[in-house]
Amino acid sequence: LREATQHWENVAGDGNGGDYISALIGLAEAALSLGNRPEAESAYERAKEAFPRVKDVTGARSAYLHEGLARITARLSERAKSGQHLGQALRILVETEPKDDRSIRRVLRMLMHTYTKLGDLSAAADYAEQAIEADVIAYGEHHERVIADRSRRAAILWQAGDREQSIAEMERVLASSREVFGADSREVALHEYNLGTFCQDVRRYEEAKRHYETAATLFERAIGAKHKYTVRALESLRRLERGLQRRRAREAKKNG
Q1: Distance between CA atoms of 2 and 154, rounded to whole angstroms?
Q2: What is the CB neighbour count within 10 angstroms for residue 84?
Q3: Tens of pLDDT along 130-167?
């Protein structure tokens, strides 16, 4: 890494081109790997200042360099700046690349992650939705990538307090998982269990019970009765059933 740092210092030199900015990004990343934050900050500032003067960088390469600056600022724990660079990268890519371009999908996921860390869950959910739309264009509705991004969006919505929308998203995840992995798969069992926890938290107890029962059955078939996932699903089911019994008993007592 020390040799890499020296290499980037030698290559960067003085200049205004895209290669100069790329070299500074490399220098900053190598410096961060060595724990040299001041050197990384200096390289980042030089790269940012040079960007407006660059004449030979347009389109996808310009977006790629903004991604590099976003990576550096994220590692420097300056996530707001990272989000700004990623937003600029996205605007460039949307203007120059097709809607199903892999780079667009990658930047959207980076934005989703960045704004989740920043606590701007509304923006994070919006970027997640855009990532899903791009995934569907690229792969179709039922695909592992779509499932993964829908799961992330469901978690973001849940964290934001939008419980019903989160559950609706998880229901779509479950339906797609059955298509992609098969109705008796371990993946479907995991989503059944997660949906059960969501439903339980919003007091939709009968739905939660149904999801736990299905999850326990599928886990047992897929990975065995003694696996920790099977045991956890059964324990969740039993706790829920005991809670429902106590609730019914209290209601019966109340009604005389």
Answers
A1: 43
A2: 16
A3: 999 999 999 999 999 999 999 999 999 999 999 999 99
What is this structure's pTM?
0.84
The pLDDT tens digits of the residues spanning 160-212 come to 999 999 999 999 999 999 999 999 999 999 999 999 999 999 999 999 999 99
Comparing 248 with 117, the larger pLDDT belongs to 117
- Report CA-CA distances (Å) from 196 to 210, 245, 250: 8, 18, 24
Residue 110 sits at φ, ψ, to 5 deg, of: -65, -40
- Evaluate whether 12 touches 44 at the Cβ level (below 8 Å): no
Question: How deeply is 225 buried, as exposed, middle or buried, from its count of CB atoms within 10 A (0-12, 13-18, 19+)?
Answer: exposed
Residue whose token pair is 């460039």 = 92
Distance (Å, whole) CA 128 – CA 111: 8
Q: CA of 38: how far to CAs of 41, 122, 186, in Å? A: 5, 34, 48
User: Which residue is associated with the tokens 């307090």?
Assistant: 161
